[in-house]
Protein backbone atom coordinates (compact mmCIF):
# COMPACT_ATOMS: atom_id res chain seq x y z
CA UNK A 1 0.00 0.00 0.00
CA UNK A 2 1.64 3.26 -1.06
CA UNK A 3 0.56 6.74 -0.09
CA UNK A 4 1.07 10.15 -1.58
CA UNK A 5 -0.56 12.39 -4.12
CA UNK A 6 1.13 10.58 -6.98
CA UNK A 7 0.24 7.11 -5.72
CA UNK A 8 -3.27 7.06 -7.10
CA UNK A 9 -4.66 6.92 -3.55
CA UNK A 10 -6.94 9.93 -3.27
CA UNK A 11 -8.36 10.39 0.21
CA UNK A 12 -11.58 12.35 0.18
CA UNK A 13 -12.86 12.30 3.74
CA UNK A 14 -11.04 12.82 7.01
CA UNK A 15 -11.54 10.48 10.02
CA UNK A 16 -14.92 9.00 9.27
CA UNK A 17 -16.65 6.26 11.23
CA UNK A 18 -19.52 4.29 9.74
CA UNK A 19 -21.32 0.92 9.80
CA UNK A 20 -18.08 -0.94 9.25
CA UNK A 21 -16.70 0.48 12.51
CA UNK A 22 -19.99 -0.30 14.28
CA UNK A 23 -19.98 -3.87 12.98
CA UNK A 24 -16.40 -4.35 14.17
CA UNK A 25 -17.32 -3.10 17.64
CA UNK A 26 -20.50 -5.20 17.68
CA UNK A 27 -18.50 -8.33 16.83
CA UNK A 28 -16.32 -7.71 19.89
CA UNK A 29 -19.37 -7.16 22.11
CA UNK A 30 -21.17 -10.20 20.68
CA UNK A 31 -18.12 -12.35 21.41
CA UNK A 32 -18.05 -10.96 24.95
CA UNK A 33 -14.29 -10.67 24.81
CA UNK A 34 -13.50 -7.02 25.41
CA UNK A 35 -10.03 -7.40 26.80
CA UNK A 36 -6.77 -8.59 25.28
CA UNK A 37 -5.29 -10.48 28.22
CA UNK A 38 -6.25 -13.63 26.28
CA UNK A 39 -5.52 -13.83 22.53
CA UNK A 40 -7.89 -11.36 20.89
CA UNK A 41 -8.93 -11.84 17.23
CA UNK A 42 -9.28 -8.11 16.40
CA UNK A 43 -5.90 -7.35 17.97
CA UNK A 44 -4.25 -10.29 16.22
CA UNK A 45 -5.70 -9.08 12.91
CA UNK A 46 -4.48 -5.53 13.52
CA UNK A 47 -0.99 -6.72 14.46
CA UNK A 48 -0.91 -8.80 11.27
CA UNK A 49 -1.99 -5.79 9.19
CA UNK A 50 0.85 -3.71 10.62
CA UNK A 51 3.40 -6.50 10.02
CA UNK A 52 2.25 -7.24 6.47
CA UNK A 53 1.91 -3.62 5.44
CA UNK A 54 5.11 -2.26 6.92
CA UNK A 55 7.31 -5.32 6.50
CA UNK A 56 7.92 -6.14 10.15
CA UNK A 57 8.21 -9.67 11.59
CA UNK A 58 6.36 -8.81 14.82
CA UNK A 59 3.85 -6.31 16.21
CA UNK A 60 2.28 -5.80 19.63
CA UNK A 61 -0.68 -3.58 20.48
CA UNK A 62 -0.35 -1.13 23.36
CA UNK A 63 -2.64 1.34 25.10
CA UNK A 64 -0.87 4.44 23.77
CA UNK A 65 2.48 5.54 22.39
CA UNK A 66 3.90 6.80 25.70
CA UNK A 67 3.30 3.36 27.21
CA UNK A 68 4.95 1.92 24.10
CA UNK A 69 8.00 4.17 24.44
CA UNK A 70 8.26 3.45 28.17
CA UNK A 71 8.14 -0.29 27.42
CA UNK A 72 10.62 0.06 24.56
CA UNK A 73 13.21 1.77 26.77
CA UNK A 74 12.71 -0.99 29.36
CA UNK A 75 13.12 -3.61 26.62
CA UNK A 76 16.40 -1.92 25.66
CA UNK A 77 17.55 -2.64 29.20
CA UNK A 78 18.09 1.02 30.09
CA UNK A 79 17.71 1.84 33.78
CA UNK A 80 19.47 3.58 36.66
CA UNK A 81 22.76 5.15 35.58
CA UNK A 82 22.18 4.32 31.89
CA UNK A 83 21.77 6.91 29.18
CA UNK A 84 19.29 7.18 26.31
CA UNK A 85 19.82 9.71 23.51
CA UNK A 86 16.61 11.53 22.60
CA UNK A 87 15.32 14.29 20.33
CA UNK A 88 15.39 17.93 21.33
CA UNK A 89 12.25 19.34 19.66
CA UNK A 90 9.77 17.08 21.47
CA UNK A 91 9.72 15.80 25.04
CA UNK A 92 8.22 12.32 24.59
CA UNK A 93 11.49 10.38 24.26
CA UNK A 94 13.06 12.25 27.16
CA UNK A 95 10.07 11.44 29.36
CA UNK A 96 10.13 7.76 28.36
CA UNK A 97 13.81 7.52 29.30
CA UNK A 98 13.31 9.37 32.59
CA UNK A 99 10.31 7.20 33.50
CA UNK A 100 12.66 4.18 33.34
CA UNK A 101 15.00 5.98 35.73
CA UNK A 102 17.48 6.33 32.84
CA UNK A 103 19.19 9.59 31.94
CA UNK A 104 17.93 11.35 28.80
CA UNK A 105 20.70 12.89 26.73
CA UNK A 106 19.35 15.40 24.22
CA UNK A 107 20.83 15.38 20.72
CA UNK A 108 20.45 18.34 18.38
CA UNK A 109 18.39 18.21 15.19
CA UNK A 110 19.28 19.11 11.63
CA UNK A 111 18.34 22.72 10.92
CA UNK A 112 16.71 21.88 7.57
CA UNK A 113 14.84 18.63 8.32
CA UNK A 114 14.11 19.17 12.07
CA UNK A 115 15.05 15.50 12.62
CA UNK A 116 17.89 14.10 14.76
CA UNK A 117 21.36 15.09 13.54
CA UNK A 118 23.44 11.89 13.34
CA UNK A 119 26.63 13.80 14.17
CA UNK A 120 25.04 15.25 17.29
CA UNK A 121 23.89 11.74 18.24
CA UNK A 122 27.47 10.51 17.87
CA UNK A 123 28.77 13.35 20.05
CA UNK A 124 26.31 12.44 22.85
CA UNK A 125 27.33 8.80 23.26
CA UNK A 126 29.05 7.36 26.29
CA UNK A 127 29.82 3.83 27.40
CA UNK A 128 26.50 3.93 29.28
CA UNK A 129 24.34 4.72 26.24
CA UNK A 130 21.84 1.90 25.79
CA UNK A 131 19.41 3.25 23.23
CA UNK A 132 18.42 6.12 21.01
CA UNK A 133 14.83 7.27 20.53
CA UNK A 134 14.54 8.83 17.07
CA UNK A 135 11.39 10.85 16.44
CA UNK A 136 10.17 10.68 12.85
CA UNK A 137 9.21 14.27 13.33
CA UNK A 138 6.07 15.88 11.96
CA UNK A 139 5.87 12.86 9.57
CA UNK A 140 9.42 12.89 8.16
CA UNK A 141 11.84 10.01 8.77
CA UNK A 142 15.27 11.01 10.10
CA UNK A 143 18.65 10.08 8.54
CA UNK A 144 18.22 6.41 9.37
CA UNK A 145 21.14 5.01 7.36
CA UNK A 146 23.57 7.09 9.38
CA UNK A 147 21.73 6.54 12.67
CA UNK A 148 21.56 2.77 12.18
CA UNK A 149 25.28 2.67 11.31
CA UNK A 150 26.18 4.57 14.51
CA UNK A 151 23.87 2.32 16.53
CA UNK A 152 25.47 -0.81 15.11
CA UNK A 153 28.95 0.47 15.83
CA UNK A 154 28.05 1.26 19.46
CA UNK A 155 25.60 -1.57 20.10
CA UNK A 156 22.61 0.69 20.75
CA UNK A 157 18.97 -0.19 20.38
CA UNK A 158 17.16 2.14 17.96
CA UNK A 159 13.61 3.04 18.98
CA UNK A 160 11.64 4.92 16.33
CA UNK A 161 8.93 7.21 17.67
CA UNK A 162 6.46 7.00 14.78
CA UNK A 163 3.58 8.81 16.47
CA UNK A 164 3.63 11.31 13.57
CA UNK A 165 4.80 9.03 10.83
CA UNK A 166 2.46 6.18 9.98
CA UNK A 167 3.09 5.26 6.31
CA UNK A 168 6.11 7.60 6.07
CA UNK A 169 8.89 6.11 3.93
CA UNK A 170 12.63 6.19 3.72
CA UNK A 171 14.24 4.68 0.64
CA UNK A 172 11.26 2.35 0.26
CA UNK A 173 11.18 1.30 3.93
CA UNK A 174 8.35 2.24 6.23
CA UNK A 175 8.62 4.14 9.51
CA UNK A 176 8.73 1.75 12.43
CA UNK A 177 10.28 -1.12 10.48
CA UNK A 178 13.75 0.40 10.15
CA UNK A 179 15.00 0.48 13.76
CA UNK A 180 14.82 -2.30 16.36
CA UNK A 181 11.49 -1.06 17.73
CA UNK A 182 8.89 1.30 16.22
CA UNK A 183 6.10 2.87 18.27
CA UNK A 184 2.86 4.27 16.81
CA UNK A 185 0.11 6.34 18.42
CA UNK A 186 -3.64 6.13 17.74
CA UNK A 187 -4.36 9.29 19.79
CA UNK A 188 -7.26 11.13 18.20
CA UNK A 189 -5.26 13.81 16.37
CA UNK A 190 -3.12 11.20 14.64
CA UNK A 191 -3.77 9.96 11.11
CA UNK A 192 -4.86 6.60 12.52
CA UNK A 193 -6.85 8.13 15.36
CA UNK A 194 -9.08 5.97 17.53
CA UNK A 195 -8.89 8.13 20.65
CA UNK A 196 -6.24 6.07 22.41
CA UNK A 197 -4.21 3.06 21.41
CA UNK A 198 -0.91 2.28 19.79
CA UNK A 199 1.23 -0.35 18.10
CA UNK A 200 4.81 -1.50 18.52
CA UNK A 201 6.81 -3.14 15.73
CA UNK A 202 9.91 -5.12 16.65
CA UNK A 203 12.32 -7.59 15.10
CA UNK A 204 13.80 -9.70 17.88
CA UNK A 205 11.58 -12.20 19.76
CA UNK A 206 13.68 -11.61 22.91
CA UNK A 207 12.76 -7.93 22.70
CA UNK A 208 9.17 -9.06 22.25
CA UNK A 209 9.31 -11.04 25.51
CA UNK A 210 10.54 -7.97 27.37
CA UNK A 211 7.89 -5.77 25.75
CA UNK A 212 5.22 -8.26 26.74
CA UNK A 213 6.45 -8.24 30.33
CA UNK A 214 5.89 -4.48 30.36
CA UNK A 215 2.51 -4.54 28.65
CA UNK A 216 0.58 -7.37 30.27
CA UNK A 217 0.58 -9.50 33.39
CA UNK A 218 -2.20 -11.34 35.18
CA UNK A 219 -1.35 -11.54 38.86
CA UNK A 220 2.35 -10.90 39.50
CA UNK A 221 4.64 -9.31 36.86
CA UNK A 222 8.06 -10.72 36.05
CA UNK A 223 9.48 -7.20 36.31
CA UNK A 224 8.10 -3.86 37.41
CA UNK A 225 5.21 -3.22 35.03
CA UNK A 226 1.85 -1.47 34.96
CA UNK A 227 -0.35 -3.22 32.35
CA UNK A 228 -0.46 -1.26 29.14
CA UNK A 229 -2.93 -3.43 27.22
CA UNK A 230 -5.02 -2.02 24.38
CA UNK A 231 -8.69 -3.09 24.52
CA UNK A 232 -10.34 -5.28 21.89
CA UNK A 233 -12.84 -2.53 20.99
CA UNK A 234 -9.98 -0.13 20.32
CA UNK A 235 -8.17 -2.72 18.24
CA UNK A 236 -11.34 -3.50 16.27
CA UNK A 237 -11.91 0.17 15.38
CA UNK A 238 -8.21 0.57 14.57
CA UNK A 239 -8.48 -2.40 12.19
CA UNK A 240 -11.15 -0.60 10.17
CA UNK A 241 -9.39 2.76 10.38
CA UNK A 242 -6.03 1.27 9.37
CA UNK A 243 -7.42 0.53 5.90
CA UNK A 244 -8.55 4.16 5.61
CA UNK A 245 -5.31 5.64 6.88
CA UNK A 246 -3.59 5.91 3.47
CA UNK A 247 -6.54 8.11 2.44
CA UNK A 248 -6.17 10.25 5.57
CA UNK A 249 -2.43 10.54 4.96
CA UNK A 250 -3.12 11.55 1.39
CA UNK A 251 -5.34 14.38 2.65
CA UNK A 252 -2.51 15.58 4.90
CA UNK A 253 -0.01 15.50 2.05
CA UNK A 254 -2.34 17.42 -0.27
CA UNK A 255 -3.05 19.98 2.47
CA UNK A 256 0.67 20.40 3.20
CA UNK A 257 1.33 21.03 -0.46
CA UNK A 258 -0.88 24.14 -0.27
CA UNK A 259 1.34 25.54 2.50
CA UNK A 260 4.55 24.52 0.71
CA UNK A 261 3.30 26.37 -2.37
CA UNK A 262 2.33 29.43 -0.30
CA UNK A 263 5.90 29.85 1.00
CA UNK A 264 7.79 28.57 -2.04
CA UNK A 265 9.04 31.96 -3.21
CA UNK A 266 9.55 33.85 0.04
CA UNK A 267 12.60 33.86 2.29
CA UNK A 268 10.44 34.92 5.26
CA UNK A 269 9.29 31.34 5.90
CA UNK A 270 11.44 28.22 5.57
CA UNK A 271 9.43 25.01 5.27
CA UNK A 272 10.84 21.77 6.72
CA UNK A 273 12.96 20.15 4.01
CA UNK A 274 12.21 16.62 2.75
CA UNK A 275 15.42 15.02 1.45
CA UNK A 276 15.23 12.82 -1.67
CA UNK A 277 14.07 9.24 -1.16
CA UNK A 278 11.64 10.05 1.64
CA UNK A 279 7.85 10.28 1.73
CA UNK A 280 6.84 12.90 4.31
CA UNK A 281 3.32 12.13 5.55
CA UNK A 282 2.74 15.56 7.12
CA UNK A 283 0.93 14.78 10.35
CA UNK A 284 1.96 18.41 10.77
CA UNK A 285 3.24 20.97 8.30
CA UNK A 286 6.24 22.68 9.91
CA UNK A 287 8.21 25.77 9.00
CA UNK A 288 10.25 28.52 10.63
CA UNK A 289 9.68 32.27 10.45
CA UNK A 290 12.90 33.97 9.37
CA UNK A 291 11.73 37.61 9.44
CA UNK A 292 13.38 38.70 12.72
CA UNK A 293 16.81 38.80 11.07
CA UNK A 294 15.27 41.03 8.39
CA UNK A 295 13.82 43.49 10.92
CA UNK A 296 10.31 42.00 10.81
CA UNK A 297 9.64 40.66 14.35
CA UNK A 298 7.72 37.39 14.58
CA UNK A 299 5.14 38.76 17.01
CA UNK A 300 4.24 41.50 14.50
CA UNK A 301 3.95 38.86 11.79
CA UNK A 302 1.65 36.78 14.00
CA UNK A 303 -0.66 39.80 14.35
CA UNK A 304 -0.75 40.26 10.57
CA UNK A 305 -1.53 36.55 10.16
CA UNK A 306 -4.41 36.89 12.61
CA UNK A 307 -5.76 39.86 10.64
CA UNK A 308 -5.54 37.85 7.42
CA UNK A 309 -7.27 34.83 8.99
CA UNK A 310 -4.29 32.47 9.31
CA UNK A 311 -3.69 30.71 12.61
CA UNK A 312 -1.40 27.88 13.64
CA UNK A 313 0.58 26.58 16.61
CA UNK A 314 3.24 29.27 17.03
CA UNK A 315 6.52 28.12 18.65
CA UNK A 316 5.00 24.73 19.71
CA UNK A 317 6.18 24.20 23.34
CA UNK A 318 8.03 27.57 23.33
CA UNK A 319 11.40 26.24 24.52
CA UNK A 320 13.45 23.07 24.17
CA UNK A 321 12.12 20.22 26.34
CA UNK A 322 15.34 19.99 28.39
CA UNK A 323 14.67 23.55 29.64
CA UNK A 324 11.49 22.36 31.42
CA UNK A 325 11.50 21.60 35.16
CA UNK A 326 10.87 17.90 34.66
CA UNK A 327 14.44 17.65 33.36
CA UNK A 328 15.99 20.78 34.91
CA UNK A 329 15.26 20.17 38.58
CA UNK A 330 14.62 17.30 38.03
CA UNK A 331 11.17 16.88 39.54
CA UNK A 332 10.74 13.39 38.04
CA UNK A 333 11.42 11.20 41.10
CA UNK A 334 12.65 13.89 43.47
CA UNK A 335 16.08 13.77 45.14
CA UNK A 336 17.74 14.49 41.80
CA UNK A 337 16.83 11.13 40.25
CA UNK A 338 17.60 9.97 37.68
CA UNK A 339 20.03 12.70 36.56
CA UNK A 340 21.99 12.76 39.83
CA UNK A 341 21.83 8.99 40.34
CA UNK A 342 24.95 7.83 42.19
CA UNK A 343 25.28 5.10 39.55
CA UNK A 344 25.73 7.69 36.79
CA UNK A 345 28.89 7.87 34.75
CA UNK A 346 28.82 11.62 34.30
CA UNK A 347 26.75 14.77 34.66
CA UNK A 348 24.59 15.42 31.62
CA UNK A 349 23.79 19.00 30.60
CA UNK A 350 20.32 20.53 30.28
CA UNK A 351 21.44 24.12 29.83
CA UNK A 352 20.38 26.72 27.23
CA UNK A 353 22.54 26.41 24.13
CA UNK A 354 22.78 22.61 24.42
CA UNK A 355 21.01 22.06 21.07
CA UNK A 356 21.35 25.32 19.10
CA UNK A 357 19.38 24.15 16.06
CA UNK A 358 16.45 22.89 18.15
CA UNK A 359 16.40 26.11 20.18
CA UNK A 360 16.51 28.22 17.03
CA UNK A 361 13.75 26.21 15.33
CA UNK A 362 11.55 26.25 18.44
CA UNK A 363 11.77 30.04 18.74
CA UNK A 364 10.53 30.47 15.15
CA UNK A 365 8.28 27.45 14.63
CA UNK A 366 4.93 27.36 12.82
CA UNK A 367 3.01 24.08 13.05
CA UNK A 368 -0.21 23.40 11.16
CA UNK A 369 -2.45 20.35 11.69
CA UNK A 370 -3.04 19.06 8.18
CA UNK A 371 -6.05 16.85 8.89
CA UNK A 372 -9.57 17.90 7.94
CA UNK A 373 -10.65 19.45 4.69
CA UNK A 374 -7.91 20.14 2.09
CA UNK A 375 -10.05 22.95 0.61
CA UNK A 376 -10.08 24.68 4.01
CA UNK A 377 -6.30 24.28 4.08
CA UNK A 378 -6.10 25.90 0.64
CA UNK A 379 -7.95 28.93 2.06
CA UNK A 380 -5.67 29.00 5.12
CA UNK A 381 -2.57 28.73 2.90
CA UNK A 382 -3.86 31.65 0.79
CA UNK A 383 -4.33 33.64 4.00
CA UNK A 384 -0.75 32.86 5.01
CA UNK A 385 0.37 33.97 1.56
CA UNK A 386 -1.60 37.23 2.00
CA UNK A 387 0.11 37.85 5.35
CA UNK A 388 3.53 37.29 3.77
CA UNK A 389 2.69 39.72 0.97
CA UNK A 390 1.41 42.31 3.47
CA UNK A 391 4.78 42.46 5.28
CA UNK A 392 7.07 41.97 2.25
C1 LIG B 1 6.04 12.42 18.74
C2 LIG B 1 5.07 11.86 19.74
N1 LIG B 1 5.44 10.80 20.47
C3 LIG B 1 4.62 10.26 21.39
C4 LIG B 1 3.37 10.77 21.61
C5 LIG B 1 2.49 10.18 22.66
O1 LIG B 1 1.40 9.54 22.08
P1 LIG B 1 0.20 8.96 22.96
O2 LIG B 1 -0.74 10.10 23.21
O3 LIG B 1 -0.39 7.87 22.13
O4 LIG B 1 0.80 8.44 24.22
C6 LIG B 1 2.93 11.87 20.87
C7 LIG B 1 1.58 12.44 21.11
O5 LIG B 1 1.22 13.51 20.69
C8 LIG B 1 3.81 12.42 19.90
O6 LIG B 1 3.43 13.49 19.18
Structure description:
The chain is of the alpha/beta class and 392 residues long. The chain has a domain at 19-242: Aspartate Aminotransferase, domain 2, CATH 3.40.640.10. Helices cover 38% and strands 15% of the residues. The protein has twelve helices and 14 strands. Strands 1-9-8-5-4-2-3 form a seven-stranded mixed beta sheet, sandwiched between helices. Strands 10-12-14-13 form a four-stranded antiparallel beta sheet. Strands 7-6-11 form a three-stranded antiparallel beta sheet, with no helix packed on it. Helix 6 (144-154) links the parallel strand 4 (129-135) and strand 5. The chain is globular. The mean pLDDT is 96. The structure holds pyridoxal-5'-phosphate. Pyridoxal-5'-phosphate is lined by residues 64-66, 90, 92, 135, 161, 163-164, 185, 187, 198.
Share of residues in helices = 25-40%
Q: Find the structural class using helix and strand composition.
A: alpha/beta
- Going by CATH, what is the homologous superfamily of the domain at 19-242? Type I PLP-dependent aspartate aminotransferase-like (Major domain)
- Poorly predicted runs of 5 or more residues: none
Beta-strand share of residues: 5-15%
Strand order of the largest sheet: 1-9-8-5-4-2-3
CATH architecture heading of the domain at 19-242: 3-Layer(aba) Sandwich
The number of distinct helices, counting runs of at least 4 residues, comes to 12
CATH fold category name of the domain at 19-242? Aspartate Aminotransferase, domain 2
Overall spatial form: globular
Q: What is the rounded Rg?
A: 21 Å
What is the H-and-E element order?
HHEHEHEHEHEEEEEHHEEEHEHHEH
**Number of strand elements:** 14
The rounded distance between the terminal residues' Cα atoms is 43 Å
Bound molecules: pyridoxal-5'-phosphate
Mean pLDDT: 96
Q: Please outline the major beta sheet.
A: 7 strands, mixed
- CATH class term of the domain at 19-242: Alpha Beta
Amino acid sequence: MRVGVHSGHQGSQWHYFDDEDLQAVKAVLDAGALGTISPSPPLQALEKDFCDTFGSPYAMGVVNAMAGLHSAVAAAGAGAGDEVVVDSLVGFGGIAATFNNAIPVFADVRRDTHTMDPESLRSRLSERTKAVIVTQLWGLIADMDEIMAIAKQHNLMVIEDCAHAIFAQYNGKYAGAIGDIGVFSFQESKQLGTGEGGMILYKDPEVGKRLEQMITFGTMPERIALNYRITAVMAAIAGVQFKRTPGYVDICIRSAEHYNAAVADTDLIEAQVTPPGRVHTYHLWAATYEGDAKGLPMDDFIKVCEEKGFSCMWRYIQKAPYLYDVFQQPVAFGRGCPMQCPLRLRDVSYTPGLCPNAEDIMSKLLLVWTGGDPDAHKVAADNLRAAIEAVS
